[in-house]
Automatic annotation (TrEMBL):
<dbReference type="InterPro" id="IPR010255">
    <property type="entry name" value="Haem_peroxidase_sf"/>
</dbReference>
<dbReference type="Pfam" id="PF00141">
    <property type="entry name" value="peroxidase"/>
</dbReference>
<keyword id="KW-0560">Oxidoreductase</keyword>
<keyword id="KW-0964">Secreted</keyword>
<keyword id="KW-0732">Signal</keyword>
<keyword id="KW-0106">Calcium</keyword>
<dbReference type="InterPro" id="IPR019794">
    <property type="entry name" value="Peroxidases_AS"/>
</dbReference>
<feature type="binding site">
    <location>
        <position position="78"/>
    </location>
    <ligand>
        <name>Ca(2+)</name>
    </ligand>
</feature>
<feature type="binding site">
    <location>
        <position position="87"/>
    </location>
    <ligand>
        <name>Ca(2+)</name>
    </ligand>
</feature>
<dbReference type="GO" id="GO:0020037">
    <property type="term" value="F:heme binding"/>
</dbReference>
<dbReference type="InterPro" id="IPR033905">
    <property type="entry name" value="Secretory_peroxidase"/>
</dbReference>
<feature type="disulfide bond">
    <location>
        <begin position="79"/>
        <end position="84"/>
    </location>
</feature>
<feature type="site" description="Transition state stabilizer">
    <location>
        <position position="73"/>
    </location>
</feature>
<dbReference type="GO" id="GO:0140825">
    <property type="term" value="F:lactoperoxidase activity"/>
</dbReference>
<feature type="binding site">
    <location>
        <position position="85"/>
    </location>
    <ligand>
        <name>Ca(2+)</name>
    </ligand>
</feature>
<feature type="binding site">
    <location>
        <position position="81"/>
    </location>
    <ligand>
        <name>Ca(2+)</name>
    </ligand>
</feature>
<keyword id="KW-0479">Metal-binding</keyword>
Length: 352
């Protein structure tokens, strides 16, 4: 069929738009033209990748259950800053003395040693194949599964490459703060195209892990109505002798619980320490949450309704939390240069 010459410019324009749309879709999936799909390594005939990650995570958590919370937090802090690119894993170097991991917003980040160990093992089996950013995404999923006794599980889209840029100032400018108001939180999450519902869902991760005094010291002077008085006093007494407190009062010492007048719900009592379930929502509605940003969710009527919903429907929260982690894992990596790192703590080329 012979094309009319007059139609050629329109056809070319249409093709350009189609190509641009395809490139945009790729960027939305993984950044820099990366397509993220579940089972990516199976398709590359590297079917042992995810089982190896799971084995290493489970072995580590059997020895130290607290590393599970550390992995989930590490994953969020990586993806929220310039997308899921493994940049939070990079150590300081002479060319980059202030990477993300030294940012004030990243105080207390840990489990880097576990990611490094997983990477070292994978390099012996599949050298140069598995990105550190994918390892972190798999490890966070496996930690969530372990800590929830299988109630939270999902397929991880993978096929990421590792970024080469990591700046502390980006983390401090981007990560939500523990003293944020509801408006601050809503704007912060909206920038990443996350809804208020997803904000409430992801806040449920505060049923695990610990927090440093600097992140919650303002709560010691919070006015009545914003924090349970006995819980506030228990925090004051505890921090006279130690710098960290469990995010979930369920995981605190018996002395702390007695000071706080805490009588756990059936859901809390049935769980072990760092048990990833909906106890956060019980605590939030009892005014026994550690951060001002947690309390702030009660100041919005829609968010308050979701707090009550997830308190009463634990299986619904399990499913929604899994979906939110999948969405988090798809935040596109920003930047122009990517690689598969040989070591997760350093770029392949020191000159970056």
């Amino acid at each position: 069929m012979k094309l009319n010459a007059a139609l050629l410019p329109a056809l070319v324009a249409t093709l350009v738009i189609m190509v641009m749309a395809t490139q945009s879709s790729a960027a939305a999936s993984g950044g820099a033209g990366q397509y993220l799909v579940p089972g990516y390594y199976n398709a590359k005939k590297c079917g042992g990748v995810e089982p190896i990650v799971r084995e290493e995570v489970y072995k580590a958590l059997n020895a130290d259950r607290s590393k599970g919370a550390a992995l989930v937090r590490l994953f969020f802090h990586d993806c929220w800053v310039n997308g899921c690119d493994g940049s939070v894993l990079l150590d300081a170097s002479h060319t980059n003395p202030y990477p993300e991991k030294v940012a004030g917003a990243n105080i207390g980040l840990r489990a880097f040693d576990l990611i490094d160990a997983i990477k070292a093992r994978l390099e012996t089996v599949y050298p140069g194949v598995v990105s550190c950013s994918d390892i972190l995404a798999f490890a966070a999923r496996d930690a969530a599964r372990y800590l929830s006794t299988g109630h939270i599980d999902y397929a991880v889209p993978s096929g990421r490459r590792d970024g080469v840029a990591s700046r502390a100032r980006d983390a401090d400018a981007t990560l939500p703060g523990s003293t944020f108001s509801f408006g601050d939180l809503k704007r912060n999450f909206a920038k990443k195209n996350f809804t208020v519902e997803e904000l409430v869902v992801l806040s449920g991760a505060h049923s695990i892990g610990v927090a440093h005094y600097a992140s919650f010291k303002d709560r010691l002077a919070a006015p009545r109505g914003e924090i349970d008085a006995r819980y506030q006093r228990a925090l004051y007494l505890a921090t006279k002798y130690r710098p960290v407190v469990a995010n979930d009062i369920r995981d605190e010492t018996d002395a702390f619980k007695k000071d706080a007048g805490y009588y756990p719900t059936a859901a809390a009592a049935s769980g072990r320490r760092d048990y990833l379930n909906n106890t956060y929502y019980h605590n939030a509605l009892d005014n026994r949450v550690l951060f001002k940003s947690d309390w702030a969710l009660r100041t919005d009527s829609f968010a308050l309704g979701k707090l009550k919903e997830y308190r009463d429907k634990p299986s619904e929260w399990d499913a929604d939390f899994a979906d939110a982690l999948v969405k988090l894992s798809r935040l596109p990596a920003e930047g122009k240069n990517f690689e598969i790192r040989k070591k997760c703590s350093a770029t392949n080329k020191p000159s970056y």
